[in-house]
């Protein structure tokens, strides 16, 4: 026996119109119309009593009419009101589907007949149906429980964790809507899995106090003398040639092509020298300028200085005078054409803000440095001996904003390339999947119209490749942003799961609308009215697009909004301004 068993008196109306995805319903009376609210579920019998079509109400109207209504040559009795409901079909329920009982699919397997009665899904029927939806998402003994359904607060809402991360996800919402808590809730549940593997790009230090996560931090100026465990350096040699160019070469300069060629030659020569010294013949036979081979920047500076001051023989000789018999000389092809590049490079080398790039400890120049970095980021290789939780939070808060995009994308690119080149084994079981959680993504993944900065363009290219190809190699993306209109549409379009909290800006709403199927665009109208911590979830990871109250995490992120008025009225403690000023001078909170 199925879960839908209705009496005729429970019907709110009858089907009066049907198209491919929408059903138009005439409601019997104003009293019945009170059961039809936007966002609620209704059901209509399908081909037989075993099949029921589920729909979501996205429009309700009540139009008063006066006088008689003509139908052909006849005059119908007066109608005082025309009460209607528009419903978007969202799936099909079958009491029995082969050997499976209480089966639900998002596919609309049939369309309702005209005059079919329509019943609201409420009370016991709603509780039973939400139970089916919830249990369908339980794929493992440790399911991803996201919250409870707004329609039925007793019913737990689950998400298919495989489909959520395989096919990328976007978590969007205005400031203060509950994004950070939602992220912390997902991380907390993932931490309970034995082999979870998530890298969080934390730009403001919001997740640095989560006790179940491994805390990593990109080195700041205060870490250069005595870096502690968990402090990461991203030495310059990790960058590929395009990223190096975007950081060092000013393409508006007339000598930019010469600078690029000189840098290419110097970097290739430095990497080749290192491989020869280490006798890495196999790598030497196949390496390119993009291969991550350790080298020191002083070698590059020395080579560029030589080319900038190079004097070469002309092939002609003096025939008389004091220089008779000596070869005439001329300036080298790059003589005095690399001066600006050298000034720019030396300034960066001496700037302690870029110490994580240009002033790493000696061990970061070892051939095995990349092995250790890969282990810290991705784990499970057994090279390091410290305990490695599956959640790694990387704090980028002390990275200068001008190089932030390329530093975040460098980390993501390394993870992707290591996955790409790892042995896939049988049926990809040789690759341990990893999720890249991109907090505040609008700061380093801007839309094409706003990414004039060459560093941002390089960052976009890396992430766009991951968005398009990551699924094949076990690399997932979760994009978190308060301004979806500022995030690359190429990346967002690859996100097959949308978790949208409250959004009120029209441009942001239009971006989210473009990511949803046309049949569900009506859901967007309620985005500005969502409560804090309430979301609309649509995508492959949920059986039913619906409104959900998200769970609160046990361990809160450091993202609470400061209460201005209350703190002005009752200050808890004075700010240590002297300490703040000294940390400003040191460019470090540590």
Structural class, please?
alpha/beta
Radius of gyration (CA) equals: 31 Å
Within CATH, the superfamily of the domain at 142-213 and 389-553 carries the name: P-loop containing nucleotide triphosphate hydrolases
Mean pLDDT: 85
What would CATH call the architecture of the domain at 142-213 and 389-553? 3-Layer(aba) Sandwich
The total of helices stands at: 17
Main β-sheet description:
12 strands, mixed
**What is CATH's topology name of the domain at 142-213 and 389-553?**
Rossmann fold
The percent range for helix content is 25-40%
* CATH class call of the domain at 142-213 and 389-553: Alpha Beta
Descriptive account of the structure:
This protein is of the alpha/beta class. Among the domains are: 8-121; 142-213 and 389-553, Rossmann fold (3-Layer(aba) Sandwich). Helices cover 30% and strands 23% of the residues. It is built from 17 helices and 23 strands. It has helices spanning 30-33, 123-136, 161-166, 179-190, 241-248, 256-278, 281-286, 297-308, 339-350, 355-358, 369-378, 404-421, 454-469, 489-493, 506-515, 564-569, 577-586, and strands at 13-18, 22-27, 41-45, 51-64, 69-71, 74-76, 81-97, 100-105, 117-120, 144-149, 156-159, 169-172, 198-202, 214-218, 231-232, 311-317, 327-331, 391-395, 434-438, 475-481, 497-500, 534-539, 546-550. It has a twelve-stranded mixed beta sheet. A hairpin with a 3-residue loop joins strand 1 (13-18) and strand 2. Helix 6 (256-278) crosses helix 8 (297-308).
């Amino acid at each position: 026996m199925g879960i839908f068993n209705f009496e005729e008196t429970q019907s709110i109306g009858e089907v009066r119109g049907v198209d491919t995805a929408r059903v138009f319903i005439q409601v019997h009376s104003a009293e019945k119309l009170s059961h039809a609210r936007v966002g609620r579920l209704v059901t209509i019998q399908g081909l037989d009593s075993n099949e029921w079509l589920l729909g979501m109400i996205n429009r309700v109207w009540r139009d008063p009419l006066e006088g008689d209504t003509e139908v052909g040559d006849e005059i119908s009795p007066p109608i005082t009101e025309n009460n209607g409901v528009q419903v978007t079909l969202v799936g099909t329920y079958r009491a029995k589907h082969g050997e499976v009982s209480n089966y639900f699919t998002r596919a609309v397997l049939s369309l309702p007949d005209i005059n079919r009665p329509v019943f609201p899904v409420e009370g016991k029927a709603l509780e039973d149906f939400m139970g089916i939806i919830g249990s369908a998402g339980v794929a493992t003994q440790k399911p991803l429980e996201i919250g409870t359904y707004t329609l039925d607060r007793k019913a737990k809402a689950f998400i298919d964790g495989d489909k959520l991360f395989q096919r990328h996800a976007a978590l969007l919402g205005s400031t203060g809507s509950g994004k950070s808590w939602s992220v912390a809730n997902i991380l907390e549940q993932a931490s309970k899995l034995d082999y979870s593997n998530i890298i969080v790009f934390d730009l403001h230090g919001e997740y640095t106090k989560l006790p179940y996560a491994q805390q990593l931090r990109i080195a700041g100026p205060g870490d250069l003398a005595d870096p502690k465990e968990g402090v990461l350096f991203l030495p310059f040699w990790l960058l590929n040639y395009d990223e190096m160019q975007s950081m060092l070469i000013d393409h508006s300069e007339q000598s930019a092509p010469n600078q690029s060629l000189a840098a290419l030659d110097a970097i290739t020569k430095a990497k080749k020298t290192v491989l020869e010294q280490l006798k890495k013949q196999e790598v030497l036979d196949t390496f390119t300028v993009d291969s991550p081979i350790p080298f020191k920047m002083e070698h590059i500076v020395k080579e560029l200085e030589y080319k900038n001051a190079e004097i070469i023989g002309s092939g002609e000789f003096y025939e008389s005078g004091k220089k008779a018999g000596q070869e005439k000389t001329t300036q080298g092809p790059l003589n005095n054409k690399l001066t600006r590049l050298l000034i720019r490079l030396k300034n960066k080398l001496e700037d302690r803000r870029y110490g994580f790039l240009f002033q790493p400890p000696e061990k970061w120049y070892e051939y095995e440095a990349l092995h250790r970095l890969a282990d810290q980021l991705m784990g499970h290789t057994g090279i390091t001996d410290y305990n490695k939780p599956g959640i790694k939070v990387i704090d980028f808060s002390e990275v200068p904003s001008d190089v932030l995009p390329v530093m975040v994308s460098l980390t993501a690119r390394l993870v992707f390339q290591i996955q790409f080149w790892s042995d896939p084994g049988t049926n990809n079981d040789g690759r341990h999947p990893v999720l890249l959680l991109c907090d505040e993504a609008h700061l380093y993944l801007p839309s094409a119209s706003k990414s004039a900065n060459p560093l941002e363009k390089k960052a976009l290219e890396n992430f766009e490749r991951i968005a398009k190809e990551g699924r094949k190699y076990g690399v997932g993306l979760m994009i978190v942003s308060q301004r979806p209109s500022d995030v690359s549409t190429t990346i967002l379009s690859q996100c097959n799961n949308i978790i949208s909290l409250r959004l009120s800006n029209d441009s942001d709403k239009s971006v989210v609308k473009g990511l949803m199927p046309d049949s569900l665009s009506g859901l967007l109208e309620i985005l500005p009215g969502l409560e804090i911590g309430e979301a609309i979830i649509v995508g492959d990871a949920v059986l039913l697009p619906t409104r959900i109250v998200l769970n609160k995490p046990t361990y809160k992120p450091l993202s609470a909004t400061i209460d201005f008025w209350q703190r002005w009225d009752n200050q808890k403690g004075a700010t240590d301004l002297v300490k703040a000023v000294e940390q400003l001078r040191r460019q470090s909170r540590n």
